[in-house]
Design the sequence.
């Protein structure tokens, strides 16, 4: 490392560019001159930062810039290495997007067998299908065979489920949209967690609905607060994300679910159960749809257990009467799910791809949570072993907005608590998504940048930092 660091230090000191861009230029110069060869390992970030007498964040940003230019790669188990086939160095700054932690994406496992299985399924479906059959309008809610496949997948959570209670739609977001539109009218109230999935806030605003956030703890919403709301003016529905709740990662206990279900039953309040993450935890929770089947609209899909691009969601209705009612609303709002996506989801259910994908994503999430625990040793956050994100407390010496803006300027995007807050002041927290990084190496780099920021008083106190 000594030779590299010495050359790079000289190059950076002579350059008029920001230090992170000069570092990326120096790496490019060494590749062009042959000082760095294909697959050669670069120094670890902290060691290089110390050798160059630069801030860790600046060096991390320099590596990210070099990767954006196609010069280097970060590989699990190998560290940062020079790419085998390198493009000509680009000396202009490029946006740093590979460390985006704003989206709650499932981490993508580098499981070659799973990737091959997914690819084979897509290819096989395309080759074996009638092209025009996949391009025609189809019955809303999905063909019966595909609804049966969905029922078989969901029956591991909801026993004895039949296709007559299942509707297929283009993703969970559209399912929630259809349910809100069916159960409430403009200016009606829907209850939810005090901090909740942002998509719910957007849907309510579009439909002119009033959201009332209920206080929650590590066990879910406060039953007493829900009861008090129902006594005063029962909401038209209660929306809950009870397993690995987004953003707090809370998991409602069975006792809390039963208490909430009993209150909903007393006041005839329908429950919308968003179970997007339900199949990820090793220890399964009993759905509200099993505790209160006569009240609960259960929603699930594949965006969190296989990939966000597989836009297929399922609604389980309390009875067939509701199936027809919800189907009519969804037909008006979203027409239908893509026939190709429906067939692909059915194929993936029947050939075991969904099961294999969920297991692989669970393992990758656990590995990234372990990375977070190892890197953020002095930080306060809540999460669960199978969650895709952390709910990170911002230290008192940082303003949460300043903290997020500082990290965004350095290529790490986070979501402020304001995005999720329905009622009360936003807490001093941010959501850190672990799935945005394409590899564990990039995830670790991202976490180290966050940890470095947490350890400093403010962005203004960063010695040697060049924005």
Sequence:
């Amino acid at each position: 490392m000594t030779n590299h660091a010495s050359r790079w230090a000289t190059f950076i000191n002579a350059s008029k560019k920001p230090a992170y861009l000069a570092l990326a230029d120096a790496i490019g110069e060494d590749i062009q001159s042959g000082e760095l060869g294909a697959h050669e390992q670069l120094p670890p970030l902290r060691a290089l930062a110390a050798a160059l007498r630069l801030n860790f964040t600046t060096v991390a940003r320099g590596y990210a810039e070099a990767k954006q230019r196609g010069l280097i790669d970060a590989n699990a188990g190998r560290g940062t290495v020079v790419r085998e086939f390198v493009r000509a160095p680009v000396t202009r700054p490029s946006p740093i997007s590979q460390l985006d932690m704003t989206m709650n994406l499932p981490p993508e496992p580098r499981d070659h067998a799973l990737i091959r299985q997914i690819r084979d399924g897509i290819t096989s479906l395309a080759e074996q299908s009638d092209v025009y059959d996949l391009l025609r309008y189809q019955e809303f809610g999905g063909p019966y065979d595909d609804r049966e496949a969905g029922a078989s997948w969901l029956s591991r959570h909801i026993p004895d489920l039949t296709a007559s209670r299942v509707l297929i739609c283009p993703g969970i977001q559209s399912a929630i949209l259809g349910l809100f539109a069916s159960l409430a009218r403009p200016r009606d109230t829907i209850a939810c967690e005090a901090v909740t999935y942002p998509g719910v806030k957007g849907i309510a605003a579009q439909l002119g609905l009033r959201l009332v956030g209920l206080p929650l703890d590590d066990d879910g919403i406060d039953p007493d607060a829900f009861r008090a709301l129902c006594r005063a003016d029962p909401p038209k529905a209660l929306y809950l994300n009870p397993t690995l709740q987004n953003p707090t990662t809370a998991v409602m206990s069975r006792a809390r679910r039963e208490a909430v279900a009993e209150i909903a039953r007393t006041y005839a309040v329908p429950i919308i159960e968003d179970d997007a993450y339900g199949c990820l935890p090793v220890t399964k929770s009993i759905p509200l749809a099993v505790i209160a089947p006569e009240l609960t609209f259960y929603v699930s899909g594949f965006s969190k257990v296989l990939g966000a691009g597989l836009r297929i969601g399922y609604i389980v209705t309390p009875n067939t009467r509701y199936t027809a009612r919800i189907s009519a609303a969804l037909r008006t709002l979203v027409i239908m799910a893509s026939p190709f996506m429906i067939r692909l989801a059915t194929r993936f259910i029947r050939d075991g791809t969904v099961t294999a994908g969920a297991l692989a994503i669970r393992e990758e999430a656990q590995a990234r949570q372990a990375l977070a625990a190892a890197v953020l040793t002095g930080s306060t956050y809540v999460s669960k072993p199978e969650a895709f994100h952390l709910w990170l407390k911002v230290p008192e010496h940082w303003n949460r907005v300043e903290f997020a803006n500082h990290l965004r300027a350095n290529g790490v995007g986070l979501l402020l608590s304001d995005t999720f807050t329905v009622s009360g002041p936003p807490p001093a927290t941010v959501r850190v998504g672990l799935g945005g990084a394409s590899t564990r190496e990039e995830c670790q780099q991202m976490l180290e940048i966050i940890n470095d920021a947490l350890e400093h008083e403010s962005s203004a106190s960063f010695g040697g930092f060049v924005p």
Observations:
- The chain has 16 helices and 15 strands.
